[in-house]
Amino acid sequence: MESTEADLVAMRRAIALARRNLGRTGDNPSVGCVIIKDEQVVGEGATGLGGRPHAEEIALDQAGEYARNATAYVTLEPCARRSAGGLSCSERLVLSGVARVLVACDDPSALADGHGAARLRAAGIELQLGVLAEEAAGLYIAYRPATS
């Protein structure tokens, strides 16, 4: 499915959110997440200072039940595992009932590396990768994740 103008606007908002905490999230990358339902922002967030909480957690907590059948825009592939345990962002997105997830950049870290995306697809969530990847790529120049 092709990205709409509304999709690009929402992803640019997620990129702007991530940019705010760039360099302030410890070893974690700064990620932005916006959740839209019925053309309204129902949740948004950026990775917290020091790296926690994750952007998706903040946005999903704000959205609550409004996340069901909504679209999530995330600047980096949602994690498939958490280094500190607990539910990963991809698990939380599945449990929230979102219908679509659009992602700007892939995450080669051992905690994601395509597994977060695979979990979303396996749950029947429409997934679109690479949305405004060139615009978001600058966020992750300094991010050098461990890949094993």
Write a structural description.
The chain is of the alpha/beta class and 148 residues long. Helices cover 30% and strands 20% of the residues. The chain is built from five helices and five strands, in the order αββαβαβαβα. It has helices spanning 5-20, 55-63, 89-96, 115-122, 133-136, and strands spanning 32-37, 40-46, 71-76, 100-105, 126-129. The chain has a five-stranded mixed beta sheet, with helices on both faces. It is globular.
Estimate the helix proportion, in percent: 25-40%
Question: How are the strands of the biggest sheet laid out side by side?
Answer: 2-1-3-4-5
Q: How many beta strands in the DSSP annotation?
A: 5
Helix/strand/pairing class, anyone? Answer: alpha/beta
- The radius of gyration computed from the alpha-carbon positions, rounded to a whole number of angstroms, is 13 Å
Main beta-sheet strand count, sense and barrel state? 5 strands, mixed
Q: What portion of the residues fall into strands of 2 or more residues?
A: 15-25%
Write the element-wise H/E pattern from the N-terminal end onward.
Answer: HEEHEHEHEH
Please tally the helical runs, counting DSSP H or I stretches of 4 or more residues: 5
Distance, first to last CA? 33 Å
